[in-house]
Every structure is written in structure tokens, then in C-alpha cells.
Design brief:
The complex is a heterodimer of chains A (about 160) and B (about 270). Chain A has about 160 residues and is α+β, with helices and mostly antiparallel strands. Chain A folds into two domains: about 80 residues, Roll (Ubiquitin-like (UB roll)), CATH 3.10.20; about 70 residues, DNA polymerase, domain 1. Chain A has a five-stranded mixed sheet with strand order 2-1-5-3-4, with helices on both faces. In chain A, α2 crosses α5. The longest helix of chain A has 14 residues. Chain A starts with a strand and ends in a 10-residue tail after the last helix. Chain B is an alpha+beta fold. Chain B is about 30% helix and about 20% strand. Chain B is globular. Chain B starts with a strand and ends in a 5-residue tail after the last helix. Classes of the chains: A alpha+beta (about 160), B alpha+beta (about 270). Chains A and B meet through β4 and α4 of A and β1, α2 and α5 of B.
Chain lengths: ~160, ~270
């Protein structure tokens, strides 16, 4: 087994880790960085639970080679809240009951953040397209779509006080 | 199983590494091969990759456009010159997949994947290789031989720009939208002269082990007008040469039953 040193930014902080052989970014974040927020769902690129942003664009971390991420900026759900202050997307998800089992939520949040960072005023169709690669088997999607539209209407860059 | 990764600065070096190791696979976007890594596939022992950004360029030259093998679906969607190809690139996966999946990788995607490759088939696509002596292969021939080893490193795909945007058509049939796997997809290039089709090219995806040209449909379209009666013969030949599989998306029977319906919609410009 060989280890490759990789340096990248995770939620604004410089991190240096050793990526093992063909280790994927998801495993590297969870094992190497200790960020457990992205989830392993299918490992096939079907479910979207592992979605993170790389240089602002959504990527599936379970299909991304960790050692190919040197110098990149990675955002995960773990970096959304500012201490006790929730990101507007997190607050809207809570208020709209957009999480039931919660396994898809982290991927949904990052897919939604990628959308709102580029398009602060999305249409419903834009939201549906943005989360098209993320599967939820609990909610039927409507609460999630409504939450993302609500977060957009509040302004996605503001933070919302109060811990969950 | 431990999968080793060999990274090279230059495409040529990666091509040499690939050609000298029959067990090696070239890793680009990762949407196909990293699945195997995650599943512990015993077929994977070595991944070869390059950091050479030249593999991602999209360049036009006269009537043709060269799409680098590592250009992603998002790269294609961001390129105005390729706007005619956008429906096919947008048909691939969700936003995250489109940021990762590459044009070159799509050539190796197993059915029912390979929507972009289906579109390439009607655009006189030639596959270019890095390193080695073999310079180019027509896409159809490449697809017929793609399981052959050692695997050449695809450098890019050269396609013909349609003379008019209206001449190129693409249609994808899926049961779940907008995240979608193909029941089938269809691409057509329908140049017309005096209101009649001349030199039609039609291709199907997910209707055979690889995307294929539908020559019987093409012959049935020669000289016809694209109206209800004009496309009848093509619809009657819609399954000639097709060999669809039964999979989790649709049965062989279903694919054959609906192919003529969707072909007519494609030809009449009615969408899916």
C-alpha cells in the first residue's frame, strides 16, 4: 500500500493528508480529515449522499480520486454552520421537515448550495434540476424543494441564529 | 484489493504506461472506474492518470470540432460552439456527474449509458489516440473494438459541425426525470435538400451492447419528406439491426415496442 501526500483546503482550512492508493475523496475526508459530514451511500454515483463542492462545483466524493484533489478547495456540510448559527439552507430544511432519516440531507444541502451560490433566485425547475442527482427515499422531495426555495428567498449567504 | 495509481505529467507518458500494462486502465473523471474501486473489483489493479490539461481542450478547425477526451459534460455545456450538442451532454446524469464525466469516458460507458457517444455517432466522429502509431479510428469501428487490449489512450473525439442546428436531433427516453437512465436514446442528422432528406444518419443508444448506427432507418429516410407519411418506412424499420437487452430500466420487449414511436417523434421534431 502506498500513501500519497495531498494538500487541499477543506471548508476554508488548509489540510495535509496522506491518501492511500486509489482512495476516494469521501473516505479521505472521513478518515484523514475527520470530517464525517459527507456520507457513503451507493458508491456508484447514483445516490448523491457524498456530494461535496470542489472549487465551488458539486462533485461526488465517492467517485473522486483523493490524490487528484491537491490544491483544490473542498466544501462539505460540516462547514455550512457558523458555530451555533445555521446556514439558511440548514434552517429551511429544519423548518420544512426536509430531513426524515437524514442520510441524503448532507448531499442535498451541498447540491442546493452549489445552485444558490450561482443562482440566488432559482425557479422550481432549477431546484429540481440541481438535486436531480440526489436520491431521497423518505420525503418525496417536495419538502426539500420548498426548503431550498425558502432559503433562496431569505438570501443564502446570511446565517440564522440558534442551534438545533 | 489494492489498486495502485500512476500519475504522469504528460499525456504521452500516460499513453506509454497504458500500452505497456495490459492490466492498467486510464482514469479520467472516475464515474466509471471509481465504482469498480469502491466495489473492490478484482479486474482493477492499476489506474493510470495524467495531470496534462491539454486533454481537456475543445478546439474547432473549419467544419470540425475536436473535443479533448477529458473535457467534461459541463465543459461541453459551457461551450457555445457546441450548443447543438448540449441536449445530449445535459442528458448525462445530474449536475455532479456532469462535472466529472468526460467525453472520452463516455465512449467506454456500458449500455444503458453512452448518450453522448450516441450523438457523436451521427456527427461523423473520429477517435484520436495519444502516442503510438494509430492516429484515428471512425467511432463505429472504435466501439466494435473497445474491449480489445491493450487499451489505447483516447486523446479526443473529432466531430463534424452540423451545417444547420435544425439538422441535428437528439432524444432521450427515460422513466424518471430529470435524473435518468436511458430506456433508449436516439440521435439523428437529417440534412435536407429541396425539402427532402439527403444523407441521413441515425444512431441509437441502449438498444445494443454499444451505441449503434441504424443503417436500415437511414436508408428508409433517403429522399423522403419529414412528415407523417414520409417517415412511415423509417418507423417500420425502427428495430432492424437493434438488439436491446432486458435490464432494470426496461425489458427487451418494451424497448422494441416503443422504438418506432420515439423514432417518429424524433423525425417529426415532436420531442419525447
Amino acid at each position: 500500500m502506498s500513501k500519497t501526500p495531498v494538500q487541499f483546503r477543506v471548508n476554508g482550512q488548509d489540510r495535509a493528508v496522506f491518501a492511500e492508493d486509489a482512495e476516494n475523496l469521501l473516505e479521505c475526508l472521513r478518515r484523514g480529515v475527520g470530517d464525517m459530514s459527507p456520507k457513503y451511500g451507493c458508491g456508484q454515483g447514483t445516490c448523491g449522499a457524498c456530494t461535496v463542492l470542489i472549487d465551488g462545483e458539486p462533485h461526488l466524493s465517492c467517485l473522486t480520486l483523493a490524490q487528484g484533489c491537491g490544491g483544490r478547495s473542498i466544501e462539505t456540510t460540516g462547514g455550512l454552520a457558523d458555530g451555533p448559527n445555521l446556514h439558511p439552507l440548514q434552517a429551511a430544511f429544519m423548518e420544512h421537515f426536509a430531513a426524515q432519516c437524514g442520510f441524503c440531507t448532507t448531499g442535498m444541502l451541498m447540491a442546493a448550495k452549489a445552485l444558490l451560490d450561482k443562482n440566488p433566485n432559482p425557479t422550481r425547475d432549477d431546484v429540481v434540476e440541481a438535486i436531480a442527482g440526489n436520491i431521497c427515499r423518505c420525503t418525496g422531495y417536495e419538502p426539500i424543494i420548498n426548503a431550498i426555495l425558502e432559503a433562496a428567498s431569505r438570501g443564502s449567504n446570511s446565517v440564522v441564529g440558534g442551534a438545533v | 484489493m489494492v489498486v495502485s495509481v500512476r500519475t504522469y505529467d504528460q499525456v504521452g507518458e500516460a499513453a506509454n504506461a497504458l500500452s505497456s500494462d495490459r492490466e492498467a486502465y486510464f482514469l479520467a473523471g472516475g464515474t466509471l472506474l471509481m465504482r469498480g474501486v469502491n466495489e473492490g473489483s478484482r479486474a482493477l489493479s492499476t489506474l493510470v492518470r495524467t495531470t496534462d490539461s491539454s486533454l481537456r481542450q475543445i478546439q474547432s478547425s473549419g467544419s470540425r470540432i475536436e473535443i479533448g477526451a477529458a473535457a467534461t459534460m459541463s465543459d461541453i455545456l459551457a461551450n457555445r460552439e457546441l450548443s447543438f450538442l448540449h441536449p445530449a451532454a445535459r442528458a448525462v446524469g445530474g449536475p455532479a456527474i456532469r462535472n466529472m464525466a468526460t467525453a472520452g469516458g463516455n465512449l467506454f460507458a456500458r449500455t444503458p449509458y453512452g448518450d453522448l457517444t450516441t450523438a457523436f455517432l451521427v456527427l461523423d466522429a473520429m477517435v484520436n489516440f495519444a502516442g503510438g502509431s494509430q492516429a484515428q479510428l471512425p467511432l463505429g469501428q472504435f466501439l466494435a473494438e473497445r474491449e480489445k487490449q491493450p487499451r489505447p489512450l483516447v486523446a479526443g473525439i473529432s466531430i463534424e459541425r452540423p451545417t444547420s442546428a435544425a439538422a441535428f436531433r437528439f432524444l432521450k427516453v427515460s422513466r424518471v426525470k430529470p435524473e435518468r437512465l436511458s430506456v433508449m436514446c436516439m440521435a439523428a442528422l437529417l440534412p435536407q435538400s429541396g425539402g427532402r432528406v439527403q444523407g441521413a444518419r441515425v444512431a441509437y443508444g441502449a438498444m445494443a451492447p454499444t451505441p449503434i448506427r441504424m443503417t436500415a432507418v437511414e436508408q428508409a429516410l433517403e429522399g423522403v419528406t419529414l412528415d407523417e407519411s414520409g417517415v412511415q418506412a423509417a418507423a417500420a424499420a425502427a428495430n432492424t439491426g437493434a438488439s436491446p437487452a432486458t435490464d432494470a430500466i426496461a425489458s427487451e420487449w418494451y424497448r422494441r415496442e416503443v422504438a418506432p414511436v420515439h423514432l417518429k417523434r424524433l423525425l417529426l421534431g415532436q420531442g419525447s
